[in-house]
Amino acid sequence: MEALIRSFFSVEILAQAWPILLSGFWMTLLLTVVVVPLGLAGGLGVALLSTVKSRVLRTALIVYVDFFRAFPPLVLLMFIAYGLPFLDIRLGAFGSVALSFLLNTSSYYGEIFRAGIESVPRGQFEAARTTGLSALQTMGYVVVPQAVRNVVPDLISNTLEVIKLTSIASVVALPELLHAAREAQSLTYNATPIIAAGIVYLVCLWPLVRLLSRFEHRQIALH
Amino acid sequence: MAQYAPKILEGTWVTIQLAVAVVIAGIVAGLFLSIVRTFRLKPLNFVIVLMVDVLRALPPLVIIVIFYFALPTVGIRLSAWAATWLALSLVLMAFAEEIFWAGILAVPKGQWEAARSTGLDFLQTLRDVVLPQAVRLTIPPLTNRTIALTKNTALGAVIAVGEILYQAQSAYSFSYNPSPLLLGAVAYLILFIPVVIFGRWVETRFAWKR
Question: What's the ipTM?
Fold first, then answer.
């Protein structure tokens, strides 16, 4: 038990590692506030474009979505971070993470928004148009607000996954929480920083998990 | 490019093995936990819910790193493959348990009561009446989760599991040439595009009305 406390929950080590962990936490937070809105906007764009009555455009979007959903996010990130520089496209660690997340998460968010838009009855669209609203106004004021409300649980669920996914940025040496923890661990030869990082993720994300669990039960119960 | 193909192929095989092992272990364990939960033993259910919540709140990569780098300091040594397999299986178990449990709850109470009144015991009711109905409801969400999780096998590359990404990455850093990365990406596409399309099909085939 003492050995466990010494290697996992050492207060001295934590005091040493704290500044690194804290800066890692801020980087994770920064990544989250950049990457989540980007993905949401991209996804909404994908979903809106796929309502346009053009077979070519719609097929292109399905290919886009399936293509980026087939790639593990880490593979996409590696490809962008290490492959693109050969084409003289240098984005840096943060830029690579942002771009790979935009491509990956906009596909997932796009699918969710599309399902939401499809769940709004056609009559809503027609009724809005007959009142004189343009197609764009109809989307903006009538369809999208209802669509979003119908898919809130899925949006939260995906956002949780995206926040958790920011941990892969550690692989391209972006100093976010996991990277900071690994660095602190190799400096102190002690696992406490990793455990501490785990606890930070847990404390921040647990409320979201609880909320989702509630939504999911209701969703399946109403199938 | 051809010189890297054998390595990538080797990695593809490891990816497939890892993914299959994760899917089987995760779903079986998740189903088991959800069945245990139907006995409604308070302390046991509390432990299950706690475990599931923790596994859903932690990023899979963090769990892998803890298993591989933190556990050895208390004398538990897992190989890279085992650490990745265990971490991903536990995560899938957590998601599967939640989904199965929601499915079991969705079966109307009358089904339980009617089955019990025909003389079936608790386990027979669960196995022959409730689970078949519950599992059907859970197919679309479970398929999506499972597909998303199998792609996480790429995280094993971080601790040097010899799957596709790791092979591609090490060939890349050895040769300083991007073609292994490209080849690895193609291997993933060949492997996962059919899986994604299958997921799409399942979603429409078993769609629930909202």
Answer: 0.89
pLDDT in tens, B172-196: 888 888 889 899 999 999 999 999 8
Look up the CATH number of the domain holding residue B101. 1.10.3720.10
Task: Check B58 against A198: CB less than 8 A apart.
Answer: yes
* pTM: predicted TM-score of the whole model, two decimal places: 0.91
Other Cβ atoms less than 10 A from the Cβ of A90: the count is 10
- How many structural domains comprise chain A? 1
The domain in which residue B117 lies consists of 13-160
Residue B60's pLDDT band (boundaries 50, 70, 90)?
Answer: very high
- Domains in chain B: how many in total? 1
* pLDDT exceeds cutoff 50 at B4: yes
Task: Provide the CATH number for the domain around residue A139.
Answer: 1.10.3720.10
The nearest CA of chain A is from the CA of B121 a distance in Å of: 25
- Whether B7 is covered by a domain: the verdict is no
Interchain CB distance below 8 Å, A195 and B66: yes
Contact at CB, B154 and A72, closer than 8 angstroms: yes
Interfacial B residues in 133-172 facing A (CB < 8 Å): 137-138, 141, 148, 151-155, 157-158, 164-165, 168-169, 172
